[in-house]
Amino acid sequence: MRIVDLFSGAGGLTFGFYYNLIDGQFVRNENCDIIFANEFDHAAAEAFRMNFPDINMIERDIKKLKREDIVQLIGDEEIDLIIGGPPCQSYSTIGRRVYDDKAKLYNEYYRLLNIIRPRMFLFENVKGLLSMKDENGNSIIEDIRNKFEHIDDNLGYRIVYDTLDAVRYGIPQHRERVFIIGIRNDLDIEWNFPEGDDQEITLFQAISDFPPIESGQEITEYGECVPQNEYQRLMRGNTEELTCHFLAVYGDKIQTVMNHVIPGEGREYINRLVDEGVLGEEYRLTSGYKNTYGRLYADQPCTTITNNMSTPSGLRCIHYEQNRALTPREGARIQSFPDWFHFSGNRKQIKTQIGNAVPPLLAIRLATELERILA
Known about the structure:
Radius of gyration: 21 Å
Structural class: alpha/beta
CATH topology of the domain at 2-195 and 359-374: Rossmann fold
Strand order of the largest sheet: 5-4-1-6-7-9-8
Oligomer: single chain
CATH superfamily of the domain at 2-195 and 359-374: Vaccinia Virus protein VP39
Mean pLDDT: 93
Low-confidence stretches: none
Helix content: 25-40%
Strand content: 5-15%
């Protein structure tokens, strides 16, 4: 299967086509040949190169990928599949939604479909895509459907899309994302999204084998902590050096809040403690959403991992037991990145690479089904 990988980031979606999951191990999938990948962000592109050194990474603004460049990259053989999803921040229902240049990047996906003309494509984005409108009030998902179904007089793609929750595919996290499948209209192919599982992996089951860590620390060894279950063994693999297990230095207010908040509670709970006199007025929280400064449950899957996974004032991300936020490596583990997967850049860039990614285990499930019907 010949694949082109767009908006690749550090490679969460890529991972699902690069590896198979066999007998509790990630094994290179020799049936998938990723011809080239494209990513604009330098740190993400560098992380991609570290993890997939044999894939041709084109680090360039997709708008500057010209027809002649693409034709030369893909050669004479047909491309079976394009994978990838444009940046999703503009569509997100968390924060300010705006129809900006990033929101319009699906038009570049459309342009490359016209050039490459693959048999199928896989397009991923946040659930907010379904309700997003352009500056004229027109539905973005309908614009995507209309454009992709009628690329020109001879080419179009039948569109199937659904919202999948990662928790149903072996990932210890509730993460709803829209996946759009396009099938070239000259092909007699039927697509059904893979069925999920009923059994959920809890946050405790996912990350309880990481060594304890405190404000300002960075820990690079697992020490005496050993994997306790199948998921932890899969994620740990043969990794010996622990990376990205670090925390910022917390000030008194943030640390005090984390010391007092209980599982399932957040900002409003802390303010009740202030009202009751348990905490002083200086600890009142006056900004943020209802689920900010929230402590996670040990016995439930995690809430959605974002690039604010280590920011208590961002979203619910306080460790179920320790008085701290999640570390980036814990966030990566919750996303189902194995511990040996590398991230690149400064701390903010690393968290962005993790928070923006498609969970690799979900990618594997999608890749398996696509490989089956395209074989």
